[in-house]
Amino acid sequence: MFTVAALLLLFSSSCASAPRGASQARRIGEFVPQWRELTVGLDFTSGKIRHPRLEFWALRADLTDKNIEIVVNDSESDENWPAGTIPALTVSDFAARYGCIAAINAGPFSPVSDKTGEMRILTGIFISNGRPVSPPVSRYDCLVFYDDGRAAVLSQAELAHNDGIRHALGGFFTVLDGGRLPERSAESAKIRHPRSAAAVSGGGSVLYLLVVDGRRMGSIGATESETGLLLRALGSESGLLMDGGGSSALVLERDGRIRPVNKPVHGGIAGRERAVATCIGVRRTAL
């Protein structure tokens, strides 16, 4: 259940201005998260960095809690569609359909639009409830959830078979590896975008989901290395970029309503959610 303080925080954090009550820091390395419990096993934080100008929102899920369930899209699609495709939906629609407390966009795809129900072609691996939907792309990494409840960040090239894997969602590149920032090209280190990321710690027992706003005055978007630094500041050990840009959206259910806490920007329109391919949701099966 949400506390009154948490509801006030979440309401204010949905605005484009700095989230009221958010942790603030001059630089990324100085950020210390102030976690607030949304429900048992699931915490929320938000933050603002002054240099560079960034606003972000994050979740921390205890995967050892047997009542915390990670859900992804069902694998069904139109029978006339080719393999490796899935119907599009917004992250808000996904959270409502699957009864999630929180959800975030996941893997890359094409084509791009805000129209739900359209065919999306997945880029990279997608396994839903043990069923392979889309094959791996070896140069990219992924987030894996095992049948025993653990999670891991792996190279898609490592997934030769899916034994013991409940879900696998392709992303882009690892931006935090054992607490260290991987070497990336100088050019990629300069590029700023809205970012979505997923990370783990504690031997895969803790999951972190992060969204960083971009393309607006209050938050100019993060580089790959800055995303890794934010994941490390949150307490994670290994993490990767999921699909970003106009796809980046983190939604929460509160007071019977589901809406983004960040400010998605699709097609240059602030507040418009993109209809994405895959999502990661968190729901609680019991209190």
How many E-type strands?
A: 23
- Helical percentage: under 10%
Instruction: Tell me the β content.
Output: 35-45%
Specify the number of helices: 3
Distance from first to last alpha carbon: 9 Å
Order of helices and strands: HEEEEEEHEEEEEEEEEEEHEEEEEE
- What would the average pLDDT be, to the nearest integer? 90
Count of domain modules: 1
Give short descriptive properties of this protein.
37% strand, 3 helices, 287 residues, single chain, mainly beta, 5-stranded antiparallel sheet
What is this structure's SSE topology?
Blueprint: H1 4-13, E1 23-25, E2 36-39, E3 42-49, E4 54-62, E5 68-72, E6 85-87, H2 91-97, E7 102-105, E8 109-110, E9 119-122, E10 126-128, E11 131-134, E12 141-146, E13 151-155, E14 165-170, E15 174-176, E16 195-201, E17 206-212, H3 224-234, E18 238-241, E19 250-254, E20 257-260, E21 265-266, E22 269-270, E23 279-284
Parallel strand pairs: 1-3
Antiparallel strand pairs: 2-3, 3-4, 4-17, 5-23, 6-9, 7-19, 7-23, 8-9, 10-11, 10-14, 12-13, 12-14, 15-18, 16-17, 16-18, 19-20, 21-22
